[in-house]
């Protein structure tokens, strides 16, 4: 398993879907675009639905307008509720208003922060508080990817999307801080300190060695998990990872936490997303997330969520 501690951008450099299409002869892709365009138009006609077509090939209906809402802009963090189904009506996933919304990083020049990417593209035409229905051709959805009986390849999708809120980095920092503090209170954790802005630290077992400094090579055993307990990575076969302090080779919050420790110490580090994995890639339906990300070798980091690391600083050189 690749360690998620490596400090790399996970959101904006992914170029996956459409690669197959671009490798085909242009005429073959054009034919597919025309076929799917007709399938959507036939569906709309047969159901007496009036929808507009974007230049991207995505069709949309306005289900709820909010002219006073802020328009979605590049680099907004968009919080949404949704429902997702295939063009023939098969339900795939939904997130209703009584649940916390999911979030993703919106950028028209980087639609791969969200799959199906048509939702990222489509929300660029919306305002906060609005609800749209998108008819998404497969080349803006999951292309030839399929998942068991749930999602067939080249599936055309219908997505109802409601924007609950447009957020910025400060909103996410506040949300992460509140989530971490709620976790600490709910689990009745003691001796939790806040050594730097946003980072929370709990000593589990004292160490008797020195604290690491820039340039030191350290060995660390770890287990990383989300606030709901889902483990996303841990030291393989209990073998520590090694890295050099001060070289930006791990996420900032992890190194800051290690700097608070002494050799031999065990600790728990609570890391907000701005000091962790930041945006990540959002995928719906949720049932396909793990398989889809593995299929295309995308690291499975949830967008804008805090993480916890249980760590042991085993050696300093």
Structure characterization notes:
Keywords: Isomerase, Rotamase. Its EC number is 5.2.1.8. This is Peptidyl-prolyl cis-trans isomerase. This protein is of the alpha+beta class. The chain has helices at residues 19-23, 26-46, 117-123, 169-186, 252-259, 289-295, and strands at residues 52-53, 59-64, 77-86, 91-95, 102-105, 114-115, 131-136, 157-167, 192-196, 199-205, 217-226, 231-234, 241-244, 266-271, 282-283, 307-316. Residues 7-19 have low confidence and may be disordered. The protein contains six helices and 16 strands. It folds into two domains: 19-167, Chitinase A, domain 3 (Roll); 170-316, Chitinase A, domain 3, CATH 3.10.50.40.
Q: What percent of residues adopt helix (DSSP H or I)? A: 10-25%
The oligomeric state is single chain
Number of structural domains:
2
By CATH reckoning, the class of the largest domain would read: Alpha Beta
Tell how many strands the DSSP assignment holds: 16
Q: Radius of gyration in whole Å, from Cα? A: 22 Å
* Major sheet summary line: 7 strands, antiparallel
Class based on secondary structure composition and strand pairing: alpha+beta
CATH topology of the largest domain: Chitinase A, domain 3
Number of helices: 6
State the shape: elongated
Distance between the termini: 26 Å
Question: How much of the residues is beta strand, in percent?
Answer: 25-35%
CATH architecture of the largest domain: Roll
User: What number is the mean pLDDT?
Assistant: 91
List low-confidence stretches. 7-19
Element pattern in H and E: HHEEEEEEHEEHEEEEEHEEHE
